[in-house]
Design goal:
Blueprint: H1 3-7, E1 12-17, E2 21-29, E3 32-40, H2 44-60, E4 67-72, E5 87-88, E6 99-100, H3 101-109, E7 113-117, H4 118-129, E8 138-143, E9 147-153, E10 156-157, H5 190-194, H6 196-203, H7 212-237, E11 241-245, H8 254-266, H9 273-276, E12 283-284, H10 292-303
Parallel strand pairs: 1-4, 4-7, 8-11, 11-12
Antiparallel strand pairs: 1-2, 2-3, 5-6, 8-9, 9-10
């Protein structure tokens, strides 16, 4: 008996495409996640070729995925009426601009492809299976090599002119921070001020290699900037929960500092117990841990028509 027959759900192949690595798995959800593999993100031809070979190996082994789900770094085109649909567009990642991800996979395998950003996918997975269960509107914010955010409102990922780009919201510089910001487009946007590379610029090394005092300082700075973003998200999208993932929030005290900064920034304007009570149950770590991204890809595959 196959896993699909046991669970009653169709099996899909999920592909989480990150800027440094691609995570692939087959399954139906958190309790059924198999054949997980990691592929380095190098050139489009090499990376997508390796992804395709992994899918083919699953087919050769007797897996019968009903669809593929791809949750990708971006920006990407999500407008199915646009000739660029399915492509990575203006990414700063060398060689990846205008890469037709969906087209290559459809051409090779003839399977339906669910397609969205990595953070929209993670938001969908957290709302369905993780820290956002039980609420209809969830924002997922990741703070690591870059800063990105996805939103699920009424159970659906948010699309529009493009897709949410929450990491590029401009933030107010901390009074004790003279760093100019590293974003080539905006300088002192959240990504420019609070991403992992921004802290490496300040301290000359990666966060995990800093001494405890420097890590504590970085945690407070990160929280100050992340809190500004989450406050803006509360005002603009009114989510019922914000999930914050990525490497930077793993710093001891960073998430607490972000909650405090958010509450302070809102200034009592949002008079809800979820906020004024300290936000410990409102701004939360991922319930799915490091699997949020690949499970987002699985969720996209489960939801695609075809």
């Amino acid at each position: 008996m196959t896993t699909t027959q046991r669970t009653g759900a169709r099996t899909v192949a999920g592909i989480e495409m990150g800027g440094t690595k691609v995570v692939c798995a087959v399954g139906t959800g958190p309790q059924d996640l198999r054949e997980r593999t990691v592929i380095p993100t190098t050139s489009p031809d090499e990376t997508l070729g390796a992804v395709g070979d992994w899918v083919q190996a699953r087919l050769d082994a007797g897996e019968e995925p009903a669809a593929l789900g791809v949750a990708s770094f971006g920006p990407v085109c999500l407008d199915e009426g646009d000739p660029a649909y399915g492509r990575i567009t203006t990414t700063p990642k060398p060689g990846w601009g205008d890469t037709d991800v969906v087209g290559r996979l459809r051409e090779r395998f003839g399977l339906p492809v669910g397609w969205d950003t990595d953070v929209n996918g993670a938001a969908l997975a957290e709302q369905r299976w993780g820290a956002g269960q039980g609420v209809g509107s969830v924002v997922y914010l990741t703070v690591g090599t870059g800063i990105g955010g996805g939103a699920v409102l009424d159970g659906r990922p948010v699309h529009g002119l493009l897709h949410p780009e929450m990491g590029h919201v401009l933030v107010e510089r901390h009074p004790d921070d003279d760093y100019a910001g590293r974003c080539p487009y905006h300088g002192r946007c959240a990504e420019g001020m609070a991403s992992g590379p921004a802290f490496a610029d300040r301290y000359g090394t990666r966060l995990e290699l800093l001494d405890p005092d420097r890590q504590a300082e970085a945690a407070q700075l990160a929280g100050y900037y992340i809190g500004q973003v989450t406050a803006a998200l509360v005002l603009m999208l009114s989510p019922q929960r914000i999930v914050v993932g990525g490497g930077v929030p793993h710093l001891t005290g960073a998430l607490e500092a972000a909650r405090a900064a958010m509450v302070g920034r809102l200034g009592g304007y949002i008079n809800r117990p979820e906020i004024v009570g300290g936000a410990a149950d409102f701004v939360v770590p991922p319930g799915l841990g490091d699997d949020a991204g690949v499970l987002g890809a699985i969720a996209l595959g489960l939801d695609v028509n075809g």
